[in-house]
Amino acid sequence: MRERLHKGGGDDPLEGPLLPRFWTVGDSGGPEAIELAAASLVATTPSAASSVKGLLPKIHTAWEKASSDQERLNLGLLLASILSAVEDGPALKTITSEILAKYPDSYVAINLVGIADGLLKDWSDWNHMLDTRIAKHPDDEFLLRLKVNSAQAQGDFVLARAIEQLLIDKAKASAGDYNNYAWTSLFDGKVDPESVKAAQQANMLGKNSSFDEMHTLACIYAYQGKTSEARELLLKAMTAGNLSEPNSAIWYGFGSIYEQYGVNDAAIEAYRKVDKPEGPISPTDTYVLAQMRLKAIGGQ
């Protein structure tokens, strides 16, 4: 695996996979070194990272006793990945604050502190961290997208779309930005012509073959009552995603269509098939939206 993964490069010294920080090709380290290397492989995968939760005390002790700044940094990044996956906000904030203090311009560090603030619901700190940096770099796409994440976590979908609109106005928007603009409108019921236009633009940029973009547009159409168009797009999305049967995202789309027909029993059944994700749940996950609709139509 190490031969396939290489150290990060570019402007951010914290970028790149964790494994190269713990293992070099040709190493013959002992059990503890192998354990750390193995942990670094799964630390960024929420479903797997929880399996190494038991290693946290050992890794934390190693972090405290690190013999060099580089070793402490490497162990800190490993701790941060695992703590993020197991949603330990206080411990994550302690680790990431130290990393950010040493690397204040690192996107990786800024994002990690934001994750900690989100877990702690420390909106003031998260907003201040991002706003001060955006004030200095107003055209920084990465910072603006982190601000979108922050706004979504706080339930401020109007602000999230306003920031996405900045990216659109600056001609820096990707298909994902247009898609995100449209998708968030389903959470606060603000499906307006601009949201529809954004969903259509995202689908066009995805060449009418991207699962995510087709799914969002289908859900937008379903919300508008355009059930035939929605169903057709959901089926095309299944083809694009190589799905032989509906997954959680598709079930949500069908549930929305059933709602439009007034068949709430079928809608409730469909929404209940939207599985809860493993690990931290994004505030804009399909599961969150399905739970909102279940509550609205008496399915909870």
Keywords:
3 domains, single chain, 0% strand, mainly alpha, 300 residues, globular
Overview of this protein structure:
This protein is mainly alpha-helical. It has three domains: 1-100, no CATH class; 121-172, no CATH class; 174-300, Alpha Horseshoe (Serine Threonine Protein Phosphatase 5, Tetratricopeptide repeat). The chain has 17 helices and no strands. It is globular. The model has no long low-confidence stretch (mean pLDDT 93).
Would you identify the CATH architecture of the largest domain? Answer: Alpha Horseshoe
Rg over C-alpha atoms, rounded to the nearest angstrom = 21 Å
What share of the residues does DSSP label as strand, in percent?
under 5%
Morphology call: globular
N-to-C CA distance: 45 Å
Low-confidence stretches: none
Q: Mind telling me the CATH superfamily name of the largest domain?
A: Tetratricopeptide repeat domain
Oligomer: single chain
Largest sheet: none
Examine the coordinates and then state which fold CATH places here, giving the name of the CATH topology of the largest domain: Serine Threonine Protein Phosphatase 5, Tetratricopeptide repeat
* Total helical elements: 17
- Domain count, please report it: 3
